[in-house]
Structures are given as C-alpha cells and as structure tokens.
Design brief:
By secondary structure, the protein is an alpha+beta fold. The longest helix is centred in the middle third of the chain and has 25 residues, at 281-305. Helices cover 43% and strands 11% of the residues.
Length: 875
C-alpha cells in the first residue's frame, strides 16, 4: 500500500518526496540536526517538508553549517536550478579541479542533504527555495561569492534591439527573438576558448576594469558618457546596465575570469588546532588542581564577606559598579574577575537576593550544605554550573540594545550560545595530546570555520561587502564577534576554575566533558610530545568535529552528572590536604603553609587579620583582632590554649603579652543603654576619658563616681571608646556582658538560575522514535491510495471523504467482517479535522472501536464525528 517505485526514490519530485524516501535513521539525523522541525511534531512528511522550508528554520540551519558546507550552498545558489553534480564541482573546484575541494565536496553535499537544505539526485541537485532566495545574489543583497546576476537576469528589461546589437558586437549571428539571442550570448560567455578569444581583443585598461570587479562587488558606477575602456565592455555585453549610472559584471563573465570558481578561497579543510607548547600531564594536573582549590577559597571568601548580608540590589536588578569594585578589592582581583566569581556563585545556587523589602544579596541555605561537602565535590558543583550557564560575566560593563548598562547579577547577561561554545573549545583542547596547549588564535580560527555565520565574520562577503547575515540584514559588531569573545572568555575562565592548567586540558577537565582519559603506564615517559593521540582521539560522538561528525554539544543531564562525578574522583587525590597547624612568628604573625581545616581557619580569621594570600597565608595579630576574639566570647586562657595546640612553633612572648594586655583591659569599661552609659569601678579611668579631647563628640557627663552618660547610642559609644584606645565591653539591661558574634544572614531557599536555551533542545532517542513513528503514520494516512466512491468522483489527495451516516455504518460493519483497513475523515471535539487509516474491530452503540494505524493504538471513535469513509485501493 502506497509503496514508491525504485525510479521514484531515485528522482524525487519534491522535498516531501525526498523525505519520504529516507529511512528512519536518516529522518532521526535530520530532526536531531534541526530540532525546531519537531516543535510541535508534524502531522506528516509533507508538513515536515513545508516546515523545513520556512525562512526562520532555514536561517537557523544555515547558521549551523561549517564554512565549506556554507560555501557549497552558496555555489548552488548561483548554479542552475536544478544543477548537476559536475556543475557544482566546477563552481567549487574550478577548471583546474582542486583535488582537496573535490575530495571534500561529497561530504559537504551529504551534510546539506541530511539537513534537508538540498534534495534530488546528483543529476538534479536542488537547493531549498528559501535558501536560494537568501543566498542568491541580488542588487539589494550581494552574494557572499561576489557574483552578480546572470546574463538572462541582467538583460530581463533590455530592449530587443539592444540585445541584437550585443550579439552582433561579439560576432554572433542575429536571431529572430530575444530569448535565443540571450541564450547565444550566454553560450559564448560560458565557452572557455571562445571567451578567451574575445577577451584577447580587449584593451588592457578594459581588462583592468574586469579585474577590479571579478571578485566583487560586481557593481560599478559610470557617467552618461563612459570612457572608451568602459564603452568597449558595454558594447559587447561584458558589462550590462542595471540602473541609470550603474553597471554589473554578468555572472558568466566573472566565472570565466575566475577560471570557474565561485569562491576566491574555498576552505574544504578546517584550520588545524596544533599544540603550541607541551607540558608533562602531571604538571598540568597539579597546576589545575591548585587553581581549583584557589577557586574554592575565592568563592568561600566572597560569601564570607557577604556573611551578614551583602550589597543591596539595584532597582533595575544587579550589583552596582561601586559594590563590584568593593568586592574586587576584598577578593584582591580585577573587576572582571570579581564579576566572574559573583556570577559563578549565583549560577551554582550559592548566592541570591534575599527578597526582603530592603533587598540585599546573601548566601543561600545551599551554601551551608556546600561547605560540608568534600572539596572535590564542591569544585564539581561549580564546574558543572559554569559549563551549563548561559549567564556570561564577560559582558558586564557593556550595553544592551537599549543602551542600558549591564551589571553583575543583573538582567540581560544570558547568551544562549555560551554552553555550546564552552563545550566546543574544551573539546578542541581534548583533541590534542595530553599536556598540550594550543594558541588561542588557532582555536578562534577553527570556531570561525565551524560557524562562519555566527563568528566574527558573520555573513561578511570576502570581497569588501558590508557585514550581512544569511537573510541580508546587517548585523552589529557586537553580534559579529560574540562567539569569538565567548571562546576567549572560556579559555580564561577554564584556567581560573582549574579545568585547564597552563593552557592544557587537565585529566579531570577531560572527564568533565565525558572524554575517556588515556592510560599512563608506570615508568612511561611523561612528555606530551610522545603521546600518540591525535585530534578527535577518545572523543565521544557529541564532541567530534565537522570533519569527523557533529560539532560538540552539551551532554544530556544524566550523562553530565556521571561525567562530573568522574571528574571529582580524579581531582580529589590532587587537592592539598587541609592542615591542622600554623607557624607562629615573633613579629606577631602566623604562617599557614597550606589550606587549613575549617574549625582552625574559622577561629584564626576572628583572632587575626589576613595580611597576604598565596601558597602560604600570612595572618597578623593586632589589638583589634584580639579584642574581636574576646568580644566573641573567648577568654585569654582559651586563646593561649588554642595557639599552643595549633602552633608547630612555641607561642612567641610578644603575642602572649598582646593577648594578656588586651584581655586585662577588655571589659573594664561597661557600656549599656540609657541613651548610653559607661560604668567602671575605677573612677580615675573615667576621669581620663572625660579629659580626653577625642571624647567631646560623645557628649558625656558624669552621673556618679563610677558612671558616665552619653548622648549617642551604645554602638557609637563602643566604637568611639575603641578608637580612643580603650577596650570596653557591651552589657545587657541585666548587667551581663554581651558576646558579639557575626550574624549569618541567609536567603530563603532559592533555585539556581535556569540556562536560556539556544533554540529547541536536541531531542533524545525516545522522543525521536515516537516523533518519527507519528510522522510516518500520519504520512500513511495522508498518502494512502483511496478507492473512489464512483468513477465520476475520484478523491483528490488530502481531501476528506464525504459519505452519509447509513453508508458509513454499513462500510464499517463490512470492514469488521472482512478485516480490511479503511480511510476516514474525523473531526474531534475541538473542531479539528484529520484523516486516519483504521482497521475496525467492533461497531456498537454509535461508536466504532478500531486499530488506528496513524496513532499505532486501539481507539474508539463516535460515528457522528466521522465525516466519511473510503476503502483503500489495492496495492
């Protein structure tokens, strides 16, 4: 039923017929490459073909072609319709038949066929009409090939007499009509020997004019009285007028001058990404692991700085420039780096706005859980969030389309291409031998070849035309170079995060991509130059390049989770073990020779100030830092015992004296709330305070020999007395000493921001199988041959049958007895009409129960909703 003959399969007459001749694997490849085609699932292959030819879908498909496949499509756009394979080969490889182009052309043509941009056999290749309209040259939208209109197109409005003059000028016999005259002129311009003989007669300066127009743009300006060199060309049709004062070089003439090539420089082979330097893989892994630990400490330091509530949220959303600068100073990094760490914490779900009336940024409850995990697992969470995030910190400080400033944590930072670019850059690094680092410009050149319409040269004609997209619209410079900027940011951020080390992909970075790590036999040479792996080795299918398969795409979520866990396992033994000791020095400093265990680090951060960071962290003890520890409830004896327990060196005498001296004075003065008061058993000390000129701003007076009252609040009084060198302690209304500890401010539970997808997601295998089955079933219903009700009223394809209720019932009952399939028209409760192929099983109570071939399941239909029924023709 409805089978196609072998001849029909060889020579499809439409894109729908070509799709109908594909097997399920080929259809799945098309839907995987162009997922917008099954959103929603088409009802049949005719609708799929129609959707594949829409402007939006074709533009998107063209944007995902590599440079050589795009050049092939551009060549087909200037070829005949249909074009033979030999004609296309001549346009791509030229008269000399470039061997590299000839070898690569079948693969490029197969890619265009797979994406349903080209259909037909090698004798009649057809570019989808919408793609031809987008890529074909016109006066408004010059072709990227630099070619102009054909002779037939350029002479469409020319008078018959003028056409005959052109024919006579080149030595051809006159004809009886303009059509045959244009055909004769075209045949001359496409005949290599005759055209060479004609040009041999041309003046040298006329040939110079042709040389300037040969590679485009093909249009030029002339005056009302053109020079002799131009007149010679105009008289022979080598230049043709298109508008007053404008001439064009016909396509056939340009192709002769170019020796048949549509492109000045075909690029059949992607630019190589070769190693620039090679390091030992162990050095790369160690460097990356050290940077991974630095990333963890940086994120911790950021959120610890915002522990009691971070900076306020701008009215328009995001972080102010001033607060970003403060954060950069606190982290000791540049502002772009600060924006990266802030956005990374946000993408990981560790940071959010608190949603209060006075909205501020703060850590989320997830941050407390994150702190309790092993370091490798904490890094894995950051790395996975970075890999999938569409929010891009690199655009912070720029402007959106409405000229509004883009701020960190604010709106407008999503760039949907970011995850795909990150995966592709890392996949290119994974294709190199272990320990090898490429040059950044080589990576960018490769990406531009793989996505020319999305790269820095997006849509630009190589012959000096303005930047244009595939639809002819001019693109802005920001849109042109976004993909390259994303790639540069990826290289920088991967190094900051510890995915790469010294520019090379680490072993845990490979695992993060789902790449199988190479075995390193014991005793084998470590030098990367000895590694035999080449580009693409050990890469999974979704990471192979255009030369070997599809361009890298993000892993599905379950596979990415497994890859992230594998990366954490590889990283864990490389991370430094936290230490439980410091080295105390006589200059009131302590040196932590490595990362400290959390309880030790927490206490030391209160007791001392961080003076410098790096491989070793230096802490400095000051009266203020010791007082901070005492305010937190520690006693002098507690501090002495803590330092003695965690120091590998004896506690220096100056540090012991500092602790005792601050502790002796700590709490001697008591500040409480009247407005505020100070009480002290030593009235001489109160006299000293009153006599100090710096106390004037506190406006104190004596209430009793041991009590002073102030006209400022207790917090200001505490701060003022401490600035004067005293160590007061706050007390409650009951007279008890208040212990001050930092208040941890947390948001309510917040989910990490969802990435903004770059179009519809790639369908998984289950969805593809179901979609193809539904499309096939719908196509069966739409194309199954029907037996006409009578010889005078045959049913047209797609027309719903119309029969009376009695005839419908009788035909259904007969089909139950014979087991034959029927074709019905059906209108559902929403009024939507469809056609179906069913095999009736039972008819009763006004319903027919049948096996629906279209839905591939048993269904029940009300008879009153069936518009008509027809028998299927015998195959």
């Amino acid at each position: 039923m409805g089978k196609m003959s072998t001849e029909d399969q060889r020579a499809p007459r439409s894109l729908a017929a070509a799709l109908r001749g594909r097997d399920d694997a080929s259809l799945a490849a098309l839907l995987r490459a162009r997922p917008d085609l099954i959103t929603p699932v088409p009802t049949d292959l005719t609708q799929l073909a129609t959707r594949a030819g829409t402007r939006a879908s074709v533009v998107r498909a063209l944007e995902r072609l590599d440079r050589f496949a795009l050049q092939t499509a551009e060549a087909l756009a200037v070829a005949g319709d249909p074009a033979a394979y030999d004609e296309l080969l001549g346009l791509m490889a030229g008269d000399a038949r470039d061997a590299a182009v000839a070898d690569a052309l079948p693969g490029a043509l197969a890619a265009l066929r797979e994406q349903a941009l080209v259909w037909g056999d090698d004798g009649s290749l057809r570019l989808v009409r919408t793609a031809r309209e987008l890529l074909a040259p016109s006066a408004q939208h010059p072709s990227p090939t630099g070619l102009g209109p054909s002779v037939r197109e350029a002479t469409a409005g020319m008078s018959p007499g003028r056409i005959q003059e052109l024919v006579a000028a080149v030595g051809l016999p006159s004809t009886h009509d303009s059509v045959s005259a244009v055909d004769a002129l075209t045949a001359l311009f496409t005949h290599r020997k005759k055209m060479a003989a004609l040009l041999a007669q041309a003046p040298a300066d006329s040939l110079d004019v042709l040389g300037r127009l040969m590679w485009g743009p093909p249009y030029g300006q002339i005056t009302a009285d053109p020079a002799a060199r131009l007149r010679w060309l105009l008289d022979r049709g080598l230049l043709l007028p298109t508008a007053p004062g404008t001439v064009v070089l016909p396509r056939e003439v340009a192709l002769h001058l170019r020796e048949g090539r549509a492109h000045r420089a075909p690029e059949p082979v992607p630019p190589a990404v070769d190693p620039l330097v090679a390091h030992r893989p162990q050095v790369v892994d160690a460097t990356a692991a050290g940077q991974a630990y630095t990333a963890l400490t940086t994120v911790e330091e950021l959120l610890k700085d915002w522990h009691e509530g971070g900076p306020p949220v701008l009215r328009a959303g995001g972080l102010s420039v001033r607060d970003l600068k403060r954060t950069a100073v606190a982290l000791d990094v540049s502002e772009p780096m600060a924006a990266f760490w802030v956005e990374l914490a946000y993408a990981s779900g560790l940071l959010a706005s608190d949603g209060e009336a006075d909205e501020r940024y703060a850590a989320t409850p997830e941050y407390d859980e994150w702190l309790e995990r092993p370091p490798a697992d904490r890094w894995a969470q950051l790395a996975q969030a970075w890999l999938a995030a569409t929010r891009t910190s690199g655009v912070v400080g720029g402007r959106d389309l409405k000229e509004r400033a883009l701020s960190a944590l604010g709106p407008g930072l999503d760039r949907s291409a970011a995850p795909e670019v990150r995966h592709r850059v890392l996949a290119l690094l994974a294709g190199l031998p272990e320990g090898a680092a490429p040059q950044a410009d080589a990576v960018l050149a490769r990406l531009r070849w793989e996505r020319p319409l999305r790269g820095p040269q997006a849509g630009q004609a190589p012959q000096g035309q303005g930047p244009q997209g595939p639809h002819g619209a001019h693109t802005s410079q920001g849109e042109e170079d976004l993909r390259s900027r994303l790639a540069r940011w990826t290289l920088t951020e991967a190094e900051l995060l510890g995915v790469t080390g010294r520019g090379a992909l680490s072993s845990h970075g490979r695992a993060l991509l789902g790449v199988r790590p190479a075995a390193r036999p014991a005793g084998a040479a470590d030098d990367a130059a000895q590694a035999p792996a080449g580009p693409g080795d050990k890469l999974p299918a979704h990471h192979r390049t255009a030369a070997a398969g599809p361009v890298a795409t993000p892993l599905p979520q379950p596979e990415q989770a497994a890859a992230t866990a594998a990366a954490a396992r590889l990283l864990a033994p490389l991370l430094p073990e936290p230490l439980d000791h410091v080295l105390l020095q006589a200059d009131l400093t302590a040196v932590a020779p490595g990362p400290l265990r959390r309880p030790l680090a927490d206490v030391l951060n209160v007791l001392a100030d961080v003076e410098s960071k790096g491989g070793a962290t230096v802490y400095r003890f000051t009266p203020g830092s010791v007082r901070r520890a005492l305010d937190a409830g520690r006693s002098a004896s507690d501090l002495h015992a803590f330092l003695a327990e965690h120091s590998r060196t004896p506690v220096p005498q100056p540090l012991a004296y500092l602790i005792d001296d601050v502790a002796r004075r700590h709490g001697h003065l008591r500040v409480g709330a009247a407005s505020a008061y100070v009480r002290c058993d030593d009235d001489a000390l109160l006299n000293e305070i009153l006599a100090d000129k710096r106390a004037a701003a506190l406006r104190m007076r004596r209430l009793a020999p041991t009590v002073l009252a102030a006209q400022v609040d207790p917090a200001s009084l505490l701060e003022g007395l401490r600035a004067m060198g005293f160590a007061p302690a706050a007390e409650s209304a009951e007279g008890d000493v208040l212990i001050t500890r930092a208040h941890a401010h947390r948001t309510s539970p917040r989910a990490a921001p969802e990435p903004v997808p770059d179009g519809p997601p790639v369908p998984d295998g289950t969805l593809l199988t179901a979609a193809i089955r539904a499309i096939r079933a719908g196509d069966l219903a739409a194309t199954a041959p029907r037996k006409p009700a009578d010889a005078t009223a045959p049913l047209a394809p797609g027309e719903l049958p119309r029969t009376g209720s009695a005839e419908t019932l009788a035909t259904m009952q007969a089909a139950v007895l014979t087991g034959e399939a029927l074709w019905i028209g059906y209108v559902n409760a929403e009024g939507t009409a469809s056609q179906r192929v069913i095999a009736p099983v039972r008819v009763e109570g006004g319903f027919v129960t049948a096996y629906d071939h279209t839905a591939d399941e048993v269904r029940t239909y009300p008879l009153h909703r069936i518009t008509g029924v027809a028998e299927l023709a015998q195959d």
